[in-house]
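Feature request disguised as a bug: please show the residue count (710) next to Raffinose synthase in the output. Example input:
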Amino acid sequence: MTNMNDFHDKNGFGLLNPIALSVTLDNGKRPSFQAGGWSDGPSGTDALGDYRTRTLAFRGEEESDSITLELKCYASTVLAYVSVQLKQDVFGVTHALAPEAGLRFSVSDPVGAEGILAHYNHYKWWTRPYIAEGTSALPAQTQTLLWRAGGRYTQLFPACSDVCKTTLQGNGDGFDIVVSPLVRGFRSGRQLLYVLSESDASYIAAEQAAAAMLHAMDKPVRTRESKSYPEAFDYLGWCTWDAFYHEVSEHGIEAKAAELQEKDVPVRWVMIDDGWSPVREDKTLSSLGANAEKFPNGLLATVRSLKNHYGVKWVGVWHAFTGYWHGIEPGSELASDMRDVLFADHAGRLIPHPDPAKGLSFWKTWHESLARQGIDMIKVDSQSSLVQFVQGQLPLGRAAAGLHQSLEASAALFFDGRLINCMGMAQENVWNRGNTAISRNSDDFYPSKPDWFREHALQNAYNSVYHGTLYWGDWDMWWTSHDDSVSHAVLRAVSGGPVYISDPVGTTDASKLRPLIYSNGRVLRADRPGLPTEDCLFTNPVEQPVPLKVWNRSGDCGLLAAFHLHSEAETVSGKLRIGDVPGLAEERYAVLDHFNRQAFNLDQTASHAFSVERGQPALFAVVPYRDGIACFGLVDKYVSPAAIESCWSANGRTVLALREGGLLGFACDTEPAAVLINGEHAKVQRESGFYTVDCADSKGSSVLVEIMLA
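Example output, currently without the count:
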């Protein structure tokens, strides 16, 4: 290991200070590499702005061996690359990096860091947050790092390039930037190492870093803001998984659909999860059709019944990224028919081929068959298990990019892009989906695990810091009959993503769903993925007696939910500030406390103290005053401002259009003189700090409201 001279980037990035490099070859040897000094490289301008480059070369014991670190520095962003050149001569004497941890760049804690938030793969498919004061104990397989120093935030994303995958890991003093080719024979090439970006706001630092990563990768992958959210997921859904697990069947689905209809629960999409396919005991797929015992009339009969009799508009099915959990049965007719478009790993397991053209042929065959049976969407699971099939044979990043490309092309062709990505939070998946907009944001909802809401909320809120730059997070299904059902409902309300349940037959509590949806099943959805407030970023609410606060937006209004996650305290206390929700720039706001059914005023300099008890979330809508009136929207809904389609105020008169009738709430400086609903005078009810008007008779249709002040 070789120590280097200190490096302070003139833009204020103190990341690589000091730095050391260790190299491991595929024969197990660890040769010494000596560092030279930093040198200036080319400067110029590209899509990210003006940049300058600095390089640092390490020379090996063999004169032909070199490792070069290159930093491309912009005003608030750095792209880091590593170039490898190892010995290869005509006599067959070669050096190559070890597939696992071939390079380790060791760095100290970020200078002046006041706290860190990282995300690591605790299973191959999922990430969870790691919150600490420093980086010395970063878990292995860490794939994001955020820190605050001097009032500014820096977001670092290690890269998974075509060949090499970079992760982070604490080393006792600081942390290592670990580079793994995951294939043998990598001895030369230039690979993206990491991206970092700095901003006054944490979420902007993450968004900038994500955009810079996609720029550096130079692939047709887009950020979330440039993707289209599929219409189906604007509506309430139901999934078969926690209702039946692998025992899903035509009969069971029909029974659940009948119950939902009887209870007037307007589910508009159904996802038939794992269990519908014909599979072997070794968890391999034997056919592209449906299990004949569970679906004796085929999928088409179930789909037609759901659509013709139960008001369901979209029906989807689950399948795995690799065909099934352990691939495709080698001795099956399916394997024989598709042999030219399947990939065999070292153990002889078969999966759809990562070559985009071959993979597309496989997916088109399957998806066309599903589309003919009325299937409208897919959920694709086990995505981050790909490494188990290709490691040592194909470059992981290239294989993942190819398989995602072919999958998305087929999903666009047959399902108009209606695809839920799942079990795919490893870097090779996260950074290689070009167009799909929805991706699972956490480990599963486990209805039988005690206190699982604590971990579920923690993962979803904090994972969204990085995951939400590329996707609307799917915060997973839940049960309306669960002890934590209200907490789960509020968590989904501020998620900004799909809302769907997995209740078993006979257990759906419709009252738990009404605050989330309109009467036609459309979800009152927030504007973006929910995020932890900045005062929560570096404090673990499971370990510290503070609430987890999650913010979102609905137009020019703010939303803030607070949850009790602490393992011991019965009550946790926190404060609400206007600044908790970025972008709220008005001087004065009215705040609706949903569960305490009261409202109060708050300005930019004040705060409001509140407490959250175990199992009882808090929810606040933060609404600006306009011409003396602040309109909360439908206060019987969690995302109440979303019910306002348009609003206009002037001269003591406010006119607003509601998307549906319900209980309208508003605050005002003076008592209202009159309220008209669709031109008719309505009774005004004084509440605690606000007023309500009952528009429920107009439920299901738009409502025009006029509020006149005295």
